[in-house]
């Protein structure tokens, strides 16, 4: 896959022709091809912090999820750790419980574990991480096995948050992140996220989660896109330090 001029060029390997249309649909969802960048920019440009960020990264999209269950697991692994640490944990999870490919392809060696692979696994021991996080992944796996529609579209963001916070070990931050990435809800916002608060910091300090939530009312219905811009700015600032 390579970026083109206002398009994506995709090369499919090992995919039967009859599946090509379904794969293309998932790719459009993954890369947020149905977004309306103009409407999003108009909405967010009214915020003095977001305005230059939107101008610097016009058309920034909201990444989706190829596998919603994998995204849910990655959200749990990312609780209270850096992005780099979460990526490392995900790699170890796949190495420990994923299915090896008979023929590795372009650096891909394993398939991400299915819910059945994780529902009884001792994840915390294998990954040397807090037991509560391993318990949460097992609970998510159990919920996915019990309800095939766990990651199906919902009528509202509030319904999605209620659905996922009912699972042991999943709080509002994780539920909002899953809603954002796996369910593609454009108004999802992980309010207490450290990166968001850091990106909005001023000379007097960072805003509180409550202050961020109040400010974000003006970003509706595109709060998830505002989060993407703030995360991108925060990542750039951290790298520059």
TrEMBL record:
<dbReference type="GO" id="GO:0032131">
    <property type="term" value="F:alkylated DNA binding"/>
</dbReference>
<dbReference type="InterPro" id="IPR010316">
    <property type="entry name" value="AlkA_N"/>
</dbReference>
<keyword id="KW-0227">DNA damage</keyword>
<feature type="domain" description="DNA-3-methyladenine glycosylase AlkA N-terminal">
    <location>
        <begin position="1"/>
        <end position="67"/>
    </location>
</feature>
<dbReference type="InterPro" id="IPR003265">
    <property type="entry name" value="HhH-GPD_domain"/>
</dbReference>
<dbReference type="GO" id="GO:0032993">
    <property type="term" value="C:protein-DNA complex"/>
</dbReference>
<keyword id="KW-0234">DNA repair</keyword>
<dbReference type="InterPro" id="IPR011257">
    <property type="entry name" value="DNA_glycosylase"/>
</dbReference>
<dbReference type="GO" id="GO:0043916">
    <property type="term" value="F:DNA-7-methylguanine glycosylase activity"/>
</dbReference>
<feature type="domain" description="HhH-GPD">
    <location>
        <begin position="77"/>
        <end position="235"/>
    </location>
</feature>
<dbReference type="GO" id="GO:0005737">
    <property type="term" value="C:cytoplasm"/>
</dbReference>
<dbReference type="GO" id="GO:0006307">
    <property type="term" value="P:DNA alkylation repair"/>
</dbReference>
<dbReference type="InterPro" id="IPR051912">
    <property type="entry name" value="Alkylbase_DNA_Glycosylase/TA"/>
</dbReference>
<protein>
    <recommendedName>
        <fullName>DNA-3-methyladenine glycosylase II</fullName>
        <ecNumber>3.2.2.21</ecNumber>
    </recommendedName>
</protein>
<dbReference type="InterPro" id="IPR037046">
    <property type="entry name" value="AlkA_N_sf"/>
</dbReference>
<dbReference type="GO" id="GO:0006285">
    <property type="term" value="P:base-excision repair, AP site formation"/>
</dbReference>
<dbReference type="InterPro" id="IPR023170">
    <property type="entry name" value="HhH_base_excis_C"/>
</dbReference>
<dbReference type="Pfam" id="PF06029">
    <property type="entry name" value="AlkA_N"/>
</dbReference>
<dbReference type="GO" id="GO:0008725">
    <property type="term" value="F:DNA-3-methyladenine glycosylase activity"/>
</dbReference>
């Amino acid at each position: 896959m390579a970026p083109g001029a206002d398009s994506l060029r995709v090369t499919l390997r090992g995919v039967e022709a009859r599946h090509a249309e379904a794969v293309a649909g998932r790719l459009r969802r993954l890369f947020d091809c149905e977004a309306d960048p103009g409407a999003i920019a108009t909405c967010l440009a009214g915020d003095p912090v977001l305005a230059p960020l939107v101008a610097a990264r016009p058309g920034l999209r909201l990444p989706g999820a190829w596998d919603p269950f994998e995204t849910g697991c990655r959200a749990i692994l990312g609780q209270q750790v850096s992005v780099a640490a979460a990526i490392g944990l995900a790699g170890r999870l796949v190495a420990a419980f994923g299915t090896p490919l008979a023929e590795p392809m372009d650096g891909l060696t394993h398939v991400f574990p299915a819910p059945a692979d994780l529902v009884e696994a001792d994840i915390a021991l294998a990954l040397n991480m807090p037991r509560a996080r391993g318990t949460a992944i097992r609970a998510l796996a159990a919920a996915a096995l019990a309800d095939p529609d766990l990651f199906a579209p919902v009528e509202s963001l509030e319904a999605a948050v209620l659905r996922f916070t009912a699972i042991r070990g999943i709080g509002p931050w994780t539920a909002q992140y899953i809603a954002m990435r796996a369910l593609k809800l454009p108004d999802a916002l992980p309010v207490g996220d450290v990166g968001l608060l850091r990106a909005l910091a001023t000379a007097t300090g960072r805003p509180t989660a409550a202050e961020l939530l109040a400010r974000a009312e003006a970003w509706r219905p595109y709060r998830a896109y505002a989060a993407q811009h703030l995360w991108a700015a925060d990542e750039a600032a951290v790298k520059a330090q």
